[in-house]
Amino acid sequence: MRFNEKELVLLSRQPSERAAELGMRGPKKGDVVKKRLVKLVVNFLFYFRTDEEEPIGALLLEQCRVEREDSQTFSIAFLDEAERKYVFECDTEAQCGEWIDSIKQASYEFMRKNLIFYRTEIHRLTGKDPLEQYGISDEARFQVSNGRPLMARDTSSL
Amino acid sequence: MKLHEKILTHYLSCTSPVDKEGYLYKKKKRNDTYHRRWFVLKANLLFYQERPADRHLLGVIVLEGCAVQHPESDTHFAFSLVFGPGLKTYRFAARDRQTQESWVKALHSASYCYLSLLVKDLRRQYEETIQQQGLGESHPSVSSLKQSTNSFLFTTMQQTAVVREGRSLSASTLLQAPSIPAKMVAKKSPKLWPRRNAYVTPLNGPAPLYGEWPLVGFDPLEDFSTLHDYYGQEVKKAREEWLKSRQKEEDHTDQDLIDLG
């Protein structure tokens, strides 16, 4: 699958508040812990060999489950495969907690939920839709979900 | 760099809603021809494949650090995603004006950075509203909001492509949807929002932490334009370079988009 690699690498080089050297172990049997520079940028988790400019890989932080494994270790499971986890070893319990919180709140879906909350609340309190001033009220991505599909899919270009 | 594709394809196929999908023509760089592709926009990812039923994905475009451009006078319903100097420009053509405008709007608000800006702006409005209405400390969400360590997301790259001469930047300028010709705009009255229900998750903890571009100490309530000045130097330089290369490009774009023989 093609992707805009150069642009993604550039994204990985942006300064991030959540970047640290952690012990990282892959999900496969036989994977061992390796020291990696792990960096959270938007909804991606990049990981580098220390002192290398280009990341080894990028993990999209959507539809994943973050869990504490022990006091200094957390894991991320993707693809609904609870057993296949990426494991990260931190230096302290506090650092571990911070990483867990950051990753949980990093997803686009989490941000979207926040947006919908604020939009709904502001409308409830003021009677105004705060997105109208930006001309984006009708964008599918900002609609309130009631358990139905957000909006009929726009198939105008079919 | 390895992009873990299975994670992306899993996200694409999971139950969270698609933000937009449909056919567009994508320009192939090598021979300047257009190929019809089925595009699916979800969050800040634009996937494409040959047909909607295909299981095989041709590719994905991560929509961070790009600007959506569509030329004012245009007979080919074309638009592009511009990542900036030395980086990719993806070119598209739509079947008609409505499709073109619809995609331009959807892509304009697709990036994570955009969403962050929007959330920050709405959070501010919400806090102001709470205070104005005298709800203060009694409102459960306010105290958790005050604890938040606000990080502000800023893309220098997006700035490069979006900056216009002489216009001072504010958050509202960046958030503004691209303008649509008057006849296309259907004025609708504000929707009546359904009552909050279990499906809408309120904020429980501190405000979301996310990667901050770039890392500086600042007051989270600082005006966006002040931040803009701070990064102005780098952006200005990059923008000048970009404008130069764009000038050269514009000299080349007066050909037919599709060679009809």
Question: Globular, elongated, flat, extended or rod-shaped: what is the shape of chain A?
Answer: elongated
Distance, first to last CA of chain B: 40 Å
CATH superfamily of the domain at 5-110 in chain B: Pleckstrin-homology domain (PH domain)/Phosphotyrosine-binding domain (PTB)
Number of helices of chain B: 8
What is the multimeric organization of the chains shown?
A: heterodimer
Helix/strand order of chain A? EHEEEEEEEHH
Measured distance between first and last alpha carbons of chain A: 23 Å
CATH topology of the domain at 5-110 in chain B: PH-domain like
Cα gyration radius of chain B (Å): 21 Å
H-E string of chain B? EHEEEEEEEHHHHHHH
InterPro entries (chain A): Boi1/Boi2-like (IPR045188), PH-like_dom_sf (IPR011993), PH_domain (IPR001849)
Pfam family, one (chain A): PH
GO cellular component, one term (chain A): trans-Golgi network
Protein name (chain A): Pleckstrin homology domain-containing family J member 1
